[in-house]
Amino acid sequence: MSTAMNFGSKSFKPRAPDKGSFPLDHFGECKDFKDKFMKCLRDSSYDNSQCRLQSKDYLECRMEHQLMAKEPLEKLGFKDLMDPPPSQADSNTKP
């Protein structure tokens, strides 16, 4: 009986979601990317290391449509899939 009295005095305070939590894609803005990623997972017996490119594309789509916080792809573990900066790419082709 005393616990029922306490409910009225407590108020709910919303807070930002923990890192890694993000809104669902209710409008299907990134559905094609998700479908390609899921197909890759099925085709590779769920070995996600074989689907890193599709994963990167899916996360980029989510960031572009504000379905998750923008993060540098290097920070998300995709440094090896990034194109080198133009100055480095040019220096690699010069003799």
UniProtKB/TrEMBL annotation:
InterPro entries: CHCH, COX19, Cys_alpha_HP_mot_SF. It is found in: Cytoplasm. GO terms for biological process: mitochondrial respiratory chain complex IV assembly. This is Cytochrome c oxidase assembly protein COX19. Keywords: Cytoplasm, Disulfide bond. One of its GO terms (cellular component) is mitochondrial intermembrane space. Residues 75-95 are annotated as: Disordered. Its main location: cytoplasm. The keyword Cytoplasm applies. Belongs to the COX19 family. It comes from the Eukaryota. Residues 30-64 form the CHCH domain. PANTHER family: CYTOCHROME C OXIDASE ASSEMBLY PROTEIN COX19. The keyword Phosphoprotein does not apply.
